[in-house]
């Protein structure tokens, strides 16, 4: 059974991290490990300035990537799941490409698409695409034939089946895949933003703070990227619980 991350659980975990961070700061007693008491006020001040702009740039890239991945992977997964012949054609390709860490293709993507936001968004889209594709394909392939036959018996065509059977049945799986992949998407974004850009949390953490030894500001950027991942996770988790509750009421 999936366990949702409640606000109280997140707050408790946050407090534990802050206590561990504070203890580590006392233990190391060095400028490279400032305490949360020093970093949090800096984060609050900077989030209304340049750090906030970097945060919005990163959030925009992740949201664009996730949206594109969903819009492309869901129809493709449904088609593969309900068309065995088509799935047999593409299954070897998916089996080979799926486990490959897509971040290794970043230089190739830069060469083909240029060093722009499009290349970064494309990379994250590809990563999330395959995670959603595989989940939706398997979910669509495992639908009970009786359910499909019952809907077809009232005259529903393929388009109606996709709209009223396949998509509602696979939606929880899509949201589960998104919950799992959002951390990977933010991590890849951090790597992609470290160079050849001027905006983004990855750029802020590595170029604007770490490389010039601004350690408190660096940790403020890390807090910003952590907050981005947490917000996105909570949004998907809330949508997941809403969809599951709606489907449960319908049953």
Counting helices, strands and paired strands, the structural category is mainly alpha
CATH topology: MetI-like fold
Mean pLDDT, as a whole number?
86
Number of domains: 1
Beta content: under 5%
Low-confidence stretches: none
For CATH, the homologous superfamily is named as MetI-like
Range of helix content: over 70%
Report the span from N to C terminus. Answer: 18 Å
CATH architecture: Orthogonal Bundle
Task: Give short descriptive properties of this protein.
mainly alpha; 251 residues; MetI-like fold; elongated; 10 helices
Q: Would you write up a description of this structure?
A:
This protein is mostly helical. The chain has a single domain, classed as MetI-like (MetI-like fold), CATH 1.10.3720.10. The chain is 80% helix and 0% strand. It is elongated, with a radius of gyration of 22 Å.
Short characterization:
By secondary structure, the protein is mostly helical. The chain is built from 10 helices and no strands.
What's the structural blueprint in terms of helices and strands?
Blueprint: H1 7-28, H2 36-46, H3 50-82, H4 84-97, H5 106-113, H6 117-141, H7 145-152, H8 158-192, H9 201-209, H10 215-250
